[in-house]
Design brief:
mainly alpha
Length: about 70
């Protein structure tokens, strides 16, 4: 099922600009979880829906920006 989901996704390369934006967001949210910060940064920038069984940290990071993150369970 994961391969079917990923077939409809675009994989985005984490370049220098994205890495710096992620670092800025992680600092703003006072988190050391750069993976979650990277997910949030990209989702907010693209206005994407995030599918997660554990939305707590993701929404906390997004809330640090004052923006809402749309998260749905799998």
């Amino acid at each position: 099922m994961l391969s079917r989901l990923l077939a409809g996704c675009t994989v985005e390369v984490l370049d220098d600009v994205g890495a710096r934006a992620t670092g800025t967001l992680a600092t703003q949210a006072a988190t050391d979880d750069v993976v979650d910060a990277c997910v949030v940064e990209g989702a907010l920038r693209r206005r994407d829906l995030v599918v997660s069984a554990d939305p707590g940290d993701l929404t906390t990071i997004a809330n640090a920006t004052g923006r809402a993150l749309e998260v749905e369970p799998p």
